[in-house]
Amino acid sequence: MKSFAFVFPGQGSQSVGMLDAWGEHPAVAKVLQEASDSLNLDLSKLIREGSKEDLALTTNTQPVMLVAGVASYRAWMSETGIAPALVAGHSLGEYSAMVASGVLSLAQAVPLVRLRAQAMQEAVPVGQGAMAAILGLEATQVVAGCEQASASFEPHSGEVVEAVNFNDLSQTVIAGSKAAVDKACEVLKALGAKRALLLPVSAPFHSSLMRPAAERLMQRLLELELQTPTVPLINNIDVAVQTDPQAIREALYRQAFGPVRWVECMQAVKARGILNVVECGPGKVLAGLVKRIDPEMTGFPMFDPATLQEVKKQLM
């Protein structure tokens, strides 16, 4: 058996019917029932029949993506019993990784991410914040361009833009106030960015504007009993493996208004001698990033019975 890590996607990979291919798989059905009970909401129906617009609402997206990631993970575990050597999650996906590693139960995590989503949406009213993907520019240049754009506004104007998702070596996402993000896109294109694409999101996730949301999140985290992870988990904010529950709470708090250091997370996976990375949940985004971050590593998507069998074939 080859050594492997599991990674979990965040917002943006959701789609209507994204769990349909699992059919009546008992592990997936159990996850859906448990999660629905924890929210007193039929998540199975929302995923199967909800409109694309319903699924795109942050307060729905975060719970359904958490559930989808955990469903794929538990389907794998029910069929193989072989745990990954390491887990990580991109942004919201870190909560799926927390469930997989045993830090949070699914019943704890689902209401927690819904609260996180509500707090994030309320921290910055719709239309006042923005995010954009910057393509074809090194991360250091993106950081410098954001600083230049922020400095172009009057002090205490409240206009801010920051690099928040370091996805691969030439793709960085920025976030902040709408005017500052627009300005940064202009600056970064002048610096040589191939593209600056505004993203269809409802809040400037992972920017410092999310600090009020993080305070609400921490209040809830302090009410929950977190467990020591049974599988090592590399977090987004420090690119570190924490075992102390309070340190894990603190990292989740800071992750809400701090950057997702995904390139470094994958480099940390490789540093542990792991070259095979399985994206556990809908889509193929993270699997695709793996190769772009390090050509010596391989990413595999796993989101239905067919891809699960392919991963088994490649790793076992």
Structure description:
The protein is an alpha/beta fold and 316 residues long. It is 49% helix and 14% strand. It is built from 13 helices and 8 strands. The protein has helices at residues 26-39, 43-49, 52-56, 58-80, 93-100, 106-123, 139-151, 178-190, 211-223, 245-255, 262-271, 285-293, 305-315; strands spanning 4-8, 86-89, 129-135, 161-168, 171-177, 195-198, 276-280, 298-302. The strands form 2 sheets. A 4-stranded parallel sheet has the order 2-1-7-8, sandwiched between helices. A hairpin with a 2-residue loop joins strand 4 and strand 5. The chain is globular and about 55 Å long. The relative contact order is 0.17. The mean pLDDT is 96.
In short:
This protein has helices spanning 26-39, 43-49, 52-56, 58-80, 93-100, 106-123, 139-151, 178-190, 211-223, 245-255, 262-271, 285-293, 305-315; strands at residues 4-8, 86-89, 129-135, 161-168, 171-177, 195-198, 276-280, 298-302.
